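Homework help board

Subject: predicted structure for assignment chain

Our instructor gave us this sequence and asked us to write out the predicted structure in token form, then describe one feature. I got the tokens but I'm not sure how to describe them. Can anyone check?
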Amino acid sequence: MEKLPMQFPAGCRPEIDYPCVWQYKVIGTDRKALREAIAAHLGDAPYSVSDSRVSRGGRYVSLNLEVTVYSDFNRLRLYEVLGEHPAVKVIL
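My token output:
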């Protein structure tokens, strides 16, 4: 499935003052694999990861990722590369 770039209607683009702390919710089936994917993509950059929820049936887990982003490109690129990792099913 091809991902389309995020687009906003005219005048609806959010105003974000960079640098800022940004939060992502990373969802998959294996908590350890999700943590490894995050660590692989962020390397030595400071970030924090905390456990969030487990689905009702216990199949999916979600983690909260908090990291400082420095630009639209940086914020969207991290979203993109994490979303492409095989361990990640959904990223919000």
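Reply (TA_rk): Your tokens look well-formed. For the description, you could write something like this. The helical segments are 31-42, 72-84. That's the kind of observation they're looking for.
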